[in-house]
Amino acid sequence: MKNLKSVISFYCFIHIDKNFLNELKNTLLNYEKEGLTGLIIIAEEGINGTICGEDSITKKTIKLIKNYFNNEDLNEKLSFSKNKVFKKLKIKIKSEIVTMGISNLNLSKRGTYVNAFEWNKLLNDKNTLVIDTRNDYEVSLGGFNNSINPKTRNFREFPNWVDKNIDKYLNGKQVDNIAMFCTGGIRCEKATSLLKKKGFKNVYHLKGGILKYLEMIPSKDNLYEGECYVFDERVALNKQLKKGSYTICHACGMPLSIEDKAKKEFIEGVQCHLCISKFSDEDRKRFAERQKQIDKQKTQSKSNLKNTFKK
Q1: How much is the pLDDT for 173?
Q2: N or C: which end of the chain has fewer CB within 10 A?
Q3: What span, in angstroms and rounded, lies between the C-alpha atoms of 284 and 230?
Q4: What's the pLDDT score for residue 117?
């Protein structure tokens, strides 16, 4: 799309030799000179990231990664933004590309992919248990009706939730399938490997996650409700994959709705109703000073813009 930045989220579970990780990182970092921004995580188990930039450089980056991995499926999800959604390019080497904390998990033994068009059938099947593998604050923005929210604070808590809770959802019920979803497909895919390891059958996951679903399914058939949290400066996307209505609390990092910002507890850059008791007075003083500097820079930028037009 003309004058818009391309945003591509992707991931692939594939073995990468640990001696090759730094070489891959340095190769990708070279693309920052060509305007690429984003966050990419690489580990011995694969690659996971979101990149943003002109269409030419994002496509070039994806092509490079595919060449490195012999054209493996990168589960790409495409959206667009008026502005860059990352300030710069960061590439991190970690032990996992999405942290679950379970060792010796066989990621080749995963559940069955379900594409966006097949997903609605599973959702409408009363004998399917649907589980949202995202974190609680993400689920609060939107999801699929009747899906289970494990209310986890991070993905590392998901295995413990499975051990303590999944049997109660299955007990005494006619369940033919377990279907899981997440933002881009990576967490629900890893979650299916965990369930397969524990002996569960008929385990499915939404290929490409919510983002691919919103990209592929027309409005009249779209069963997703609300907005979808994303890990970049857009905060959330609506069903048309455009920037949604949520912003971020710059004190605690939680997403805030328009209604949240209207609450008496909210002070821009200092606190919201979710973190009012989490920080000390000294912390809030620092936050207030930081916000003062941000506001000053915004005012200066507007002034410079006006002077430019006057000339």
Answers
A1: 76
A2: C
A3: 26
A4: 94
**Active-site residue numbers?**
182
Burial category of 151 from C-beta neighbours within 10 Å (exposed 0-12, middle 13-18, buried 19 and up): middle
CATH 3.30.70.100 in the chain, residues?
5-93
- The bridge status of strand 203-206 relative to strand 177-181 is parallel
Residue 152 tokens, joined: 């986890």
Instruction: Enter the tokens of residue 15.
Output: 């073995």
Is the CATH code 3.30.70.100 the one for domain 5-93? yes
Residue whose C-alpha is closest to residue 1's, from 80, 91, 95, 97:
80
Tokens of 311: 């000339």
Residue 120's pLDDT is: 96
Pairing of strands 89-93, 37-43: parallel
Q: What pLDDT digit, counting tens, does each position of 19-33 carry?
A: 999 999 999 999 999
Distance, in Å, from the CA atom of 128 to the CA atom of 294, rounded to the nearest integer, reads 49
Would you place residue 310 in the very low, low, confident or very high pLDDT band (cuts 50, 70, 90)?
low
Determine the topology of domain 112-228 in CATH. Answer: Oxidized Rhodanese; domain 1 (3.40.250)
Tokens read off for 37: 């921004």
- Give the span between the Cα atoms of 225 and 254, in whole angstroms: 20
Sheet strands side by side (includes 89-93): 77-81, 5-13, 46-53, 37-43, 89-93
